[in-house]
Design a protein that fits this description.
This protein is an all-alpha fold and 83 residues long. It contains 4 helices and no strands. It has a domain of 58 residues.
Length: 83
C-alpha cells in the first residue's frame, strides 16, 4: 500500500531526534590537514600512543585499554572492521 507524501513527511518528523538543536557539517579531512598541519610534537604523541596500545595488546604493558567505537551499530561487519 503506497503512502502519501504527507504521511511520509509526518512519519519522518515523528522519528527525528528532537534533542538536536542544529547540525554543523564537519570540515573535510584534507582541509583540516591544510589548516592545521601536523607538528613534530603531535606526531611524537601519536607514535607514543600507538606504541603504548601495541604494548597493551601484546601483554608487555598490564594496563587496561578500552576502545570506544561507534555510538550505534547498524552494520555488524563494519563494526568488527572498525574494531
Amino acid at each position: 500500500m503506497p503512502y502519501s507524501c504527507n504521511a511520509l513527511t509526518e512519519a519522518i518528523r515523528t522519528i527525528e531526534d528532537k534533542r538536536i538543536e542544529n547540525i554543523k557539517p564537519l570540515i573535510p579531512p584534507q582541509i583540516l590537514i591544510e589548516e592545521l598541519p601536523l607538528t613534530l610534537r603531535a606526531a611524537q604523541t601519536i607514535i607514543e600512543g600507538r606504541k603504548a596500545a601495541e604494548n597493551v595488546i601484546r601483554g608487555a604493558d598490564d594496563r587496561l585499554m578500552v576502545i570506544v567505537g561507534p555510538c550505534s551499530i547498524h552494520d555488524v561487519q563494519a563494526a568488527k572492521d572498525y574494531g
